[in-house]
Automatic annotation (TrEMBL):
Belongs to the DAMOX/DASOX family. Its cofactor is FAD. The keyword Ion transport does not apply. GO terms for biological process: D-amino acid catabolic process. InterPro entries: D-amino_acid_oxidase_CS, DAO, FAD-dep_OxRdtase, TAT_signal. PANTHER family: D-AMINO ACID OXIDASE (PTHR11530), D-ASPARTATE OXIDASE (PTHR11530:SF11). This is D-amino-acid oxidase. One of its GO terms (cellular component) is cytoplasm. The keyword Oxidoreductase applies. It catalyses: a D-alpha-amino acid + O2 + H2O = a 2-oxocarboxylate + H2O2 + NH4(+).
């Protein structure tokens, strides 16, 4: 059963061809019999299980790694800092500390930051930082009619944001459970809704910056049985999305073992948004420049140097860099290591295997394999641990025994 529900070798070869009709015809032949029809899918406790469409196996091999990267999530227990303060003669709006949710919340947090200067007549802004938050904040400001200059030590693709996984994860390490106050939750839900709406306007664009993809969650034990998660040893994080923005949350459907191809007893399927960071960040940068934006390379040692800038309003979007720049120890580094495997455009699903430290996102610029270490919280080291990635890829290969 397992093998039959992955596309066979003929199907994979067809997928490499560009003709959609060839692919469809060949896939139909290769995948015989196709996934269990819904009407005959097994039921448990009266619940029908959704069958799995034929899936192309992932080529999980370490010789397919094109890059291993390490990036530091800028986590703050109290949530992102979106605050206005006066530093000398400059009005500074801070917009940093978005943990593992910076891409997901970027459009919402940009709007929130700009609301803090609504009362000012000034129409020129300096933005410090050219990562996910700086660049998105710059675009939202331009669209609102501001003239914007970005000052940053690094720009895309040499910023930390470029190394993220690239999935809609708006509640990932965004604050600790004890700081999820009603006020924070209201702010978070608004940011999530603004961002989500904006992302739907970027579907189907050239380069597929944003896509929706199926995601399979796999488990060796029933889902109601707890498993040590990748986040053990970290603070307790709040559950936000399913509770506060249920309309954005895609519930997962259980799939009977006989109706999915993975050699594990328990599986669920959900759907999630993927950010193809290479094309998406290029798109953001292009639009920023087309709207007259400038990027100046500059490293600030201290906020006193803000006085050198000609703009009176400064948006500080320095991410993890704010820790050193402002001496803000509330920012805790959370190390994250990812690897990209040679792209397989025919792989159109993601994976998360509970308890095995493994998550996979099917990006256009490569199959993204994330491997979580045991002591990532508080770790600011950026040297890759190649063995961690090799282990994750070996684990991934176990899901595709027919390719071994
Ligand atoms: C492994 C990993 C996976 C992740 N996956 C996801 C995901 O799937 N989805 C999601 O939504 N989020 C994800 N995140 C989180 C997300 O990547 C971050 O929240 C986001 O990148 C933060 O963006 P930023 O613009 O604040 O910071 P950065 O990308 O670090 O940008 C900071 C900018 O400020 C500049 N800067 C800093 N200090 C100074 C200074 N002193 N002077 C001048 N310039 C300075 C830098 O040069 C840079 O331009 C992930 C993070 C990690 C580590």
């Amino acid at each position: 059963m397992h093998r039959r529900q992955f596309l066979g070798r003929a199907g994979i070869a067809a997928a490499a061809l560009s003709s959609p009709s060839l692919l469809a015809a060949s896939a139909a032949r290769a995948a015989t019999p196709a996934a269990v029809p819904a009407s005959t899918a097994p039921a448990l406790g009266g619940q029908a299980f959704a069958p799995t469409p034929p899936l192309v196996p992932i080529k999980a091999a370490s010789d397919r790694i094109v890059a291993i990267s390490v990036c530091t999530r800028p986590f703050r227990a109290q949530g992102p800092r979106t605050e206005r303060e006066q530093i000398g003669r400059k009005t500074v709006v801070h917009n940093y500390g978005h943990g593992g949710s910076g891409w997901s919340l970027s459009w919402g947090t940009a709007e929130h930051a700009l609301r803090l200067i609504q009362d000012m007549d000034e129409r020129e802004l300096a933005i410090i930082g050219c990562g996910a938050i700086g660049l998105t904040t710059a675009l939202v400001a331009q669209r609102a009619g501001y003239r914007v200059r970005i000052y940053a030590a690094e720009r895309m693709p040499d910023v930390r944001s470029f190394l993220a996984t690239g999935a809609w994860t708006p509640e990932s390490r965004i604050c600790s459970a004890e700081h999820a106050t009603p006020e924070f939750e209201r702010r978070w839900a608004d940011m999530a809704r603004i961002s989500h709406r904006r992302y739907q306007t970027m579907l189907g664009l050239p380069g597929d910056p944003i896509e929706w993809r199926d995601q399979y969650v796999l488990s060796d034990v029933p889902f109601d049985q707890p498993m040590p998660g990748a986040e053990s040893g970290e603070p307790e994080y709040p559950v936000l999305e399913s509770r506060l923005t249920p309309e954005l949350h895609h519930r997962s459907q259980p799939i009977a073992q006989s109706a999915h191809p993975f050699p594990v007893p328990y599986a669920k399927r959900t759907t999630n948004m993927v950010f193809n960071i290479s094309s998406y960040s290029r798109m953001l940068m292009d639009e920023y420049l087309q709207l007259g934006g400038e990027v100046h390379t500059r490293h600030f040692e201290s906020p006193r140097q803000f006085a050198d800038l000609r703009e009176k309003i400064i948006l500080n979007c320095t991410g993890y860099g704010a820790r050193a720049l402002l001496g803000d120890d509330s920012i805790v580094p959370v190390r994250g290591q990812t690897a990209r495997l040679i792209p397989q455009p025919e792989v159109n699903y993601g994976l998360y295997w509970r308890g095995h430290n493994l998550s996979v996102v099917p990006r256009r610029d490569g199959i993204l394999v994330q491997a979580q270490g045991e002591h990532d919280f508080g770790d600011d080291s950026t040297a890759p641990n190649a063995q961690l990635t090799y282990d994750a890829i070996a684990q991934l290969a176990k899901l595709f025994p027919a390719l071994g």
